[in-house]
Design a protein that fits this description.
Length: 219
């Protein structure tokens, strides 16, 4: 009887493990499908803009049934409100990896901006996704902008130990961050597959940006 109980327990454990494995695979497929929709939408926006980013075009680009879209997004607007935060998080991750443990504020900007340029070059639709989000996904755009600004403020508090902003208030640091983000974004709009392949252009872009930041921060 003890043997039978042991066998029953083992079978139950195996069944439970199998159920979890199946559920895990299903969750992975759902995540992958949702991401496939987002990637397709970003590419459609890159070509047609938000105004031309219809559900039909997105599902055609993703090579899936029209109805599949609504299993993951309630509406076209929900999709729009999700694209920038998703891609924006990827950008921040790539920037953070590039910066590592660097503490010098200007070197942080150099490493971060270089990583940003690389991401934009490999995701040429990103500029249009970002620029037009101000009109078609304003809440998402504001969250993206505030999120980056908050990251800058935290960095400023650690690194701006001298200069005119050493004793700046949080609000001043936030305004400073917004100006730097907008300057960086404006320069990134000039980056595409063609310009990113021109070393001199990329170098001049980075150096001009760093000169602006250095003088602006007074360091």
């Amino acid at each position: 009887m003890a043997r039978k109980a042991t066998e029953t327990a083992a079978e139950s454990t195996a069944a439970g493990t199998k159920t979890k494995t199946v559920a895990g695979r299903r969750a992975e497929r759902q995540i992958a499908t949702r991401r496939k929709i987002l990637d397709a939408a970003a590419r459609v926006i890159g070509r047609y803009g938000y105004v031309g980013c219809s559900v039909a075009r997105v599902t055609a680009k993703a090579r899936m049934a029209h109805g599949t879209f609504y299993l993951y997004f309630k509406s076209q607007q929900q999709l729009f409100d999700t694209i920038l935060p998703t891609l924006g998080a990827e950008i921040l991750t790539s920037i953070a990896a590039a910066i590592g443990d660097e503490t010098d504020p200007i070197e942080i900007e150099r490493l971060g901006f270089t990583a940003n340029i690389a991401y934009t070059a490999s995701h040429p639709y990103m500029n249009r996704v970002l620029y037009e989000a101000q009109l078609f996904a304003p809440k998402a755009y504001r969250r993206w902008l505030d999120g980056i600004a908050e990251s800058y403020v935290r960095s400023f508090k650690r690194t701006l130990t001298s200069g005119p902003f050493a004793s700046a208030s949080d609000e001043q640091l936030h305004m400073l961050a917004i100006m730097i983000v907008n300057a960086r974004t404006a320069l990134l709009f000039r980056i595409d597959n063609k310009t990113a392949a021109q070393p001199d252009f990329v170098k001049e872009t980075i150096e001009t940006y760093l000169t602006f930041v250095t003088n602006g921060l007074g360091i």
